[in-house]
Amino acid sequence: LEIRPEECWWIPKGAPTLIAPKPSCDDELSQRVYRLLREIIKDPNVELPSLSPAVQQILVMIEDQDVDFGGLAEVLAQDQVLAAKVLRTANSAAYKSVSPISRLDVAIPRLGCEGLRSILMGRTLREMTAGLDGDLRQAAQDIWNRAIASAVMVSHMASTYQLLPGQASLVGLLHDLGMTGVLKVANDHQREFNEKVPRNVFDALCWEWHELIGHRIATAWELPEPLPHIIGGHHQLIDDDDPDFVYMYLVQFSDVSCSLLDIGPYVPYDFFKTPCVDTLGLKDDELTRRQLIEIPELIRERSLQY
Ligand SMILES: [Fe+2]
Ligand SMILES: [Fe+2]
Hints:
mainly alpha
């Protein structure tokens, strides 16, 4: 395999660093908006993003021991966009469909519960990051792009660590779920008071609150473990005996990689020396380079599915 230097996205452009710069909002106006929104976010009764009734119902149904595929198909059929997406995915190359599937009750078992959950969550996240104004529009787009990229990367690396690709994909997709909560608070404020929330204020709020808010949302949505645990603590110091140890580091690996891939703000991480890449045991060798080099194309493919 011939690797061209321009394909090596993991080589930092600029002075290499091990930590992301902390977002700052020091000017007076930013500080005022920041403090205001922080008080709203801290309130345990703040209104957070909610699931559509159909999605909620399907999530409950697939938790069931013996899943009722006919019943699921009926609920799913109420949401045309979702139903179309399920059929498209079941017929895609990824599921190696032999004959075309046109019925939902056939398509659903093909995807499996994990696959279906992934579609539901992808669509929910997409809806939450669409239709915003001002600086928040770009912030939302960044959240979405990073979620897709993380889903691709965590599942791409999953087999190396004996993790299930479906679950891994969901972990990547949802790990920063809390940012959609911060997004909602900021967007509601913009609408209500006709006051723009600058990007640096949004980033500072996310930095501080996205894990806690994410945990609240995951709990409210009754997402199964390990999701709430990972969503609520992926930037904390990770215990060696944490059962989701590898997921936590893979999520961090995906964050580092997103920044190096220009998905969201660029950070010139010293890739192989970052604690997550190092702990995951990834070395600058042929095998790892082969794995890494596939990532941009996989992200492009996955992005096209939405
Ligand atoms: Fe995060
Ligand atoms: Fe992240």
